[in-house]
Each structure stands twice: as C-alpha cells, then as structure tokens.
Amino acid sequence: MKYIIGNWKMNLGIRESVALARGVIRITRGKEGLPEIIICPAFTALSEVKKTLAHSRVSLGAQNCGVEKSGAFTGEISAGMLLDAECKYALVGHSERRHIFGESNEIVRKRLEAMSKTKLIPVLCVGEPKSERDAGNEENYVTDQLKSALDGLSLNKKKPLFIAYEPVWAIGAKEPASIAEMINLQAFIRLVAKKITDLPDTSIKILYGGSVDSENAYSFLREGEVDGVLVGGASLSINKFEGIIKAASDVIVAQQ
Ligand code: PGA
Fold first, then answer.
1. Using one digit for the tens of pLDDT, what is the confidence trace for 105-116?
2. Alpha carbon of 71 to ligand 1 centroid (Å)
C-alpha cells in the first residue's frame, strides 16, 4: 500500500476546504488500486471536511496534537478533541512547528506520548536543516530527533507509526531531495526506528516529504521501500494532487 498525505497548512477557509475535499473525493470515485489518501485541513475546517468525507475513501488528519488532555492550555487542541472531530491521523514535529514556532524535541516527544495513549495514528516528521546536510551530519541529526521522540515510548504494536523524512531544505523549495538522498535517509530512518521501537516491520511506514508534485511523485513512490509521500503546496491544487494520486496508483499496479 502507498499513502498520500496532503498537508494544507494554514490555507483555505471552511468553504474552500470543503470544496477541495469534494474535489479529492471526485478523483477517487469508482477507481481501483488507489493509495490511502489522508488530508489535513486547518483545525477550523476539520468538522465540516469530516462531514464531506463521510462514506468516502479519504481519511482525515490534523496538523498537530496537544500534549495535555484538557485545561488551561490556550491555543492547544488535545488528542481527545481530534478524535472527537473524527481525525484518524495527526502530524507531529513538522519542520514548520520546529523551526518557526520553536518546538523542541522534548515537546514533540510529549505530543507523541499524548497520542500514543489514543487511537490517533501519529505521523512523526523529522529532517535536517541545510547546515547539517552541508556538514554531512544529517544521519546524526535525524537520529537525535528519532531517539528523543521514540526511545522508551510505549507504542501499540497493532497501530502503525508513520515517519515522514522531510529535509528542511527541500520543503517548499524549487527542488526536492534527490532520489538517492531520499532512499539513503529513508532506509536509515527505518533501521533506527526499528531498533528504537521494536515495532514489527509492517507497522513502520516511512514517507518522503519536500516539494513533491505531480511531476516527481512517481519517481519517489516507485522506490519499493518508500510507503508514501507527505505533500504540502501541491496538495492545494486539485490537478496536481490528482497527478500525485495517479502516480501512486500506477506504482501500485506496476508493483502488483
Ligand atoms: P511542500 O511541503 O510539499 O510544499 O514542500 C511539504 C510539507 O511541509 O509537509
């Protein structure tokens, strides 16, 4: 199976989100061999988008997950609230949260801990900034992120753990990572995650994210070990998102 996650970031009001969600459903209607599709609208649009997705094959995800269950935590949305809004997935540790809003490895860990006690499926994002890549330090950097997020965390073996490798320098950039860079790091991440978590192979899903579009999606997705892609900008364009879904379907058929 391949997974396509659309991260809409801080874009689209409720009406526009519902319209885009309808477009995504239209793309999937009556098609065989589709990837699993997950869309992550802004918090304000979650419940209307959920209604739109009812009886479709598209799942709902959130862009972050609060640490505490409830209480005086202004601006936070808890895992329980996300489940109440019928989210199935939530991103955690996205590079924009880490680098723009200063979310540390420790906070990311706490968010994951909060999710691990619930049915929410986490999509942990990791990836090195340009300076670390230039210094040849990407593996150490990502290992620190993974260790701090996952070491000793009690994880449900039956629930998948998604890890998106998103090099910071490739997000919203002109160029994605090269296929070779992506293959090396995703294999490395899978190895480290397996060692740290002791999860069965099939529970760890590794995605690539960073300037994925309809032109390059096939090349990323055809790499056997890559479970899918996390898409930002291109997920806001129905034509580009359709191209990415089609690329995933073509890969699924080719690999059957
Ligand atoms: P991008 O964003 O596809 O626009 O590079 C990816 C992401 O931030 O998850």
1. 999 999 999 999
2. 32
